[in-house]
Amino acid sequence: MNAGPASARPLGPWTATALVVGNMIGSGVFLLPAALAPFGGASLLGWAVTLAGALLLAFTFARMAMRWPCSGGPYAYARNAFGDGVGFAVAWSYWISIWCANAAIAIAFAGSLGALWPAATATPLRAAACALAALWLCAAVNLAGVREAGRLQVAATALKLAPLLLFGAVGVWWLDLRQAFEPFNPSGQPLWQAAHASAALCLWALLGLEAATVPAGAVADPRRNVPLATVLGTLVAGVATVLACTVVVGLLPAQQLAASPAPMADAAAFYWGAPAGLAMAAAAAVSCLGALNGWTLLAGQLPLAAARDGVFPAAFARVDARGTPWFGVLAGSGLASALVLANYSRSLVQVFVFAILLSTAATLVPYLAGSAAWLRRGEGRGSRIAAAGGFAFSVYALAGIGLDALFWGAILLLAGVPVRLWLRRASQAGAR
Q: Is residue 432 part of a domain?
């Protein structure tokens, strides 16, 4: 499925890297400091663990992309190592995580837009309408073609990465390191427990490191460019995210930070005036829109790869004249819209947390399976050690997200059982 001329591979190395950076830097970096406020300086330990785990996973996925340069990412690697059954479970779980993440990011976009234009989100119905508008705008861009989606991703990534790095670099100079993180661990929990809890929160901000591996069939020279984009994108996004979030935690008082719906914008406004706050709110809106565009691309590319292998319903293999998997894009956007509409009467924060819970739980399955795939089929002592570290980190993160997330993760996996049984029966009937 990956063979073809260069014109059939519209994503170059910079676009693939922008896909990783853009998908990782979404809503989490702008909202997470408020959630980390109770942990103070102890959140630095959580960031250290999470960034180290993310880099181990990135290196593992890069090695698998070099060996299996095909579309599908974690799904394809799990299927190559363990067969169709595990491949379906990973594809199903990952696909659900994508459209749940899209719902969360669209809701975060509505919140960011509300900071710039309060009337737009004055009621739950208006907020839901803003979220739906963002979802279908990105769907329209992706339906125009993979190349167009890639161009938007490059532009959006540049527009959000530059102010984020500038904010982090300038903010460091304003930090009083002797007082910023005093007390170091205000949570009252043992230090190891505070680090574990904060690491679970940090995980949401670093999801998406595998983004370039999913549409590998549309990437030029995938054996080179996909691994490069995966490692480089994870490093850039990880450093920018950790720097910016840590600066906010150090700049604002804990009580003010914990109550803030837009902590990064509030910190900018507090120290540099209202225009700076509005600028950060605008950067947050652009960030959410860019991440939503990137995840919408994956919502079509992942089921496309699985359907072409006979692991997903054949409808997801439908493409238009430009090679765009239109059915997957429409299905993913429709399900994300349903999640937003089903909860529109709640506050933005409540719906955002609910969508994050679903997405994070579902994403950890592909991370576990991807690491296990290289442990079973991979080569090289160093890469196998990295895969073992990535697997251990995934287990560690899974243990930290709580019983609710584990419950929803199990429900999501079980929901795929009837689909898997139907596909097997259809395949057996066709073989007769």
A: no
Confidence band of 352 (pLDDT split at 50, 70, 90): low
- pLDDT value of position 411: 80
State which amino acid sits at residue 289: L
d(CA 363, CA 301) in angstroms, rounded, equals 16
DSSP annotation of 182 reads S
| Residue where the block lists tokens 């442990």 | 375
Position 29 pLDDT exceeds 80: no
Q: Give dist(CA 66, CA 59) in Å, integer.
A: 11
Residue 1 lies in a domain: no
Q: What are the CB-based long-range contacts (under 8 Å, 24+) for 113-118?
A: 113/285, 114/348, 115/261, 115/262, 115/265, 115/278, 115/281, 115/284, 116/278, 116/281, 116/282, 116/285
Question: Exposed, middle or buried: residue 271 (CB in 10 Å: 0-12, 13-18, 19+)?
Answer: middle
Structure confidence at residue 7 (pLDDT): 47
Selection from 174, 142, 76 nearest residue 292 by Cα = 142
Geometric angle at alpha carbon 402, from 400 and 404, rounded to 5°: 155
Domain count, the chain: 1
> How far lies 135's CA from each of 130, 152, 234, 359, in Å?
9, 14, 25, 16
Angle between helices 222-251 and 263-272 (to 10 degrees): 60
Q: Which domain holds residue 418?
A: 9-68+93-423
pLDDT in the model for residue 375: 93
Mean pLDDT of 154-179: 79
Q: Which amino acid is at 186?
A: P
DSSP assignment letter at 267: H
- Residue 126 and residue 113 in contact, taking contact as beta carbons nearer than 8 Å: no
* CATH number, domain with residue 380: 1.20.1740.10
Examine residue 61 and state whether it is found in any structural domain, yes or no: yes
Q: Judge whether 55 and 268 are in contact, CB under 8 Å.
A: no
Q: Tell me the β-bridge partners of 219.
A: 11
pLDDT in tens, 230-258: 999 999 999 988 888 888 888 877 777 77
Length of the chain as a residue count = 432
Q: Give the pair of three-digit tokens for residue 108.
A: 């975060």
The answer to the question of residue 430 being in a domain is no
pLDDT tens-digit series, residues 30-56 = 777 877 878 887 888 889 999 999 999
Alpha carbons 241 and 208: distance in angstroms, whole number: 13
Phi, psi of 285 (to 5 degrees): -65, -45
Q: In this predicted model, what pLDDT tens digit does every residue of 167-202 receive, in sequence order?
A: 888 877 777 666 667 777 777 788 888 888 888 778
| C-alpha to C-alpha distance for 257 and 263, rounded to whole angstroms | 6
Q: Answer for the pair 215, 153: CB distance below 8 angstroms, yes or no.
A: no
pTM: 0.84
